[in-house]
Fold this protein.
Amino acid sequence: MSNNSEKMDKIISLCKRRGFVFPGSEIYGGLANSWDYGPLGHLLKQNIKKAWWKFFVQERADMVSLDSAIIMNPKAWEASGHLQNFSDELVECKKCHHRFRADHLLEADGLEPRGEREPVRSLADVMCPDCGGGLTEPRRFNMMFKTFLGTTEDSSTVAYLRPETAGGMFVNFKNIQQVTRRRLPFGIAQIGKNFRNEITPGNFIFRTREFEIGEFEYFFDPKKQENNKAKNQNEPWQDIFEMWLSEIKRWWKDVMQVNMENLVWHEIPDGERAHYSKRTVDIEYKYPFGVKELHGIAYRTDFDLERHQEVSGQDLQYTDPETNEKFLPHVIEPAFGIDRMLLVCLLEAYHEEAAPTSQDGETETRVVMKFPKHLAPIQVAVLPLSKKEELSKISQPLAAELRQHFSVEYDETQSIGKRYRRQDEIGTPYCVTVDFDTLQDKKATVRDRDTMAQERVAIANVGEFLQEKFKQ
Ligand code: GAP
């Protein structure tokens, strides 16, 4: 396999060539660090979100859903601490005027441990990485995108695009608990767009200013041990935290099917966590551009409900139905960047292999995206050997039947070899080829993406055959 930066370049180029991810606003010369998901990228993202939702919400009895507004009353951001604290240290080169995040410069210089939004310790010896010039003193830069509601632009109409989906879950906690009549512990989940005016976006879709988060707030009674765990020495929150950590491991291993050696479990030390967190574990990934955050899990205590209660003046307490005791639940929050999960999915799937050509003994490099089958954007390709009507009369109804169960691409142009290569590059697990033998034996060839093994299957049984394959 090629070296690391080459691998990123190859993936970015494949993404553009095949329609996974395009540079944003490209016909206008682009917009730096903005990306659009093309037909295949959109399908892949949908599949990741569907799988996430099934695993963390649908299959559990203790989760409910929400789709809250992107623009909230600004008081919500005052309460959550984002107006005061959601900022990074910005430094500017006095010579070339390029701007940098101070913690990134320190990290690159080996002066600072990894982590996001950490206080700066020492920048004195660091020079501009672009031109070697001196740097300004760091200053705080709030990352929330500001806008104005209505026609007047003054302080009374200021609003913000949400930087995290969590706020919606907290301000709706009381509503949701009352209408669903849920008892603790239970979680509120949502997936949605978020906006952060990042100082240094980059590394493809790793850090952008507009991105999606899937996250949930898991509310619990801080004094009550669940599931007979009272005999161990842990506090209730510690057991719940461990339970979610192990679910997160199961997610990466069984559903996303990543090589677990590429994940790093990074305990964020005291003093370096976000303002609301009593314990945070960052799940990091060994990206080609370094070991960096993939997503995280945090114990937010009752920080948010307490602050929203204080600023809104509303009673947000939960009443225990057995004891009538009133209290603010505590919260554990697993948060996942959808775009980063998609990037990891692309990186894990990308393979270059030597494959035999039609010339005896010769091989060529085959690029194949080995997505887990259930995440592949196109699941089945139907490829009649030629455009002749006698074949399309069979292959078109077959494709129509398969579309009832799978996402299907129908392709009848170019040589079959080129078409297989294209399907390998977009990660299609199965290709179904209808050829002239089909006219006689009423069978099609099913080709497996990973093994390239081919099997003749009766046309009437192809649907069932593939359904079985997708269950494996
Ligand atoms: N509610 C908690 C929260 O928002 P976060 O770590 O700030 O936590 C959640 O963000 C996740 O969103 C991150 O773990 C990461 O996966 C993703 N993320 C954060 N900033 C991002 C950015 N600028 N571009 C893409 N993804 C980002």
Observations:
- The longest strand covers residues 290-301.
- Residues 4-75+145-346 form a domain with the BirA Bifunctional Protein; domain 2 fold (CATH 3.30.930.10).
